[in-house]
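CO-FOLDING WORKSHEET

Operator: S.A.
Ligand of interest: 8-OXO-2'-deoxyguanosine-5'-triphosphate
Run index: 128
Mode: holo prediction, single chain
Checklist:
[x] sequence pasted
[x] SMILES validated
[ ] output reviewed
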Amino acid sequence: MKTILVTCAIIHFDEKILAVQRSATMKLPLKWEFAGGKIEAGETEEACVKREVLEELNIHIAVKKRLSPVSHAYPDFKIQLIPYTADYVSGELKLREHADYKLAHKEELLSLDWAEADVPIVKELLEL
Ligand SMILES: Nc1nc2c([nH]c(=O)n2[C@H]2C[C@H](O)[C@@H](COP(=O)(O)OP(=O)(O)OP(=O)(O)O)O2)c(=O)[nH]1
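OUTPUT RECEIVED:
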């Protein structure tokens, strides 16, 4: 099975972090995730995560630190999910694809129903 490379952003708004909920019609319906998406040919990870966040949420971010990538096999596809911490910079948050969002302290994040590949990332975040 082919592995897709996906970046995602752990976006800090002051002391809170943004989680977004996938819509009912997306793959992994209604699961929570960090905004992001597939890396395009020739694109750097940082450029990808900034582009995806702007496309999905209408906001600009400053990318900070790469956390540990997670390889995960879902029943019908495999991903390598590459997380970056980031700070909100500008723009009015608009959900262009997602069903919902939550701004939460990192300790509150674990109680959400995450996409499976995100669980190790949330755990790493709690240890930072
Ligand atoms: N953006 C993002 N995707 C994630 C996370 N965790 C996780 O398992 N994924 C999965 C869901 C998707 O299958 C894939 C990301 O692809 P995408 O967001 O560009 O694509 P998509 O849902 O439109 O899927 P597709 O129909 O185009 O394949 O990675 C995450 O935290 N952020």
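REVIEW:
Residues 3-127 form a domain with the Nucleoside Triphosphate Pyrophosphohydrolase fold (CATH 3.90.79.10).
The pocket of 8-OXO-2'-deoxyguanosine-5'-triphosphate is lined by residues 6, 8, 26-28, 33-34, 36-38, 79, 81, 115, 117-118 (CB under 6 Å).
[x] output reviewed
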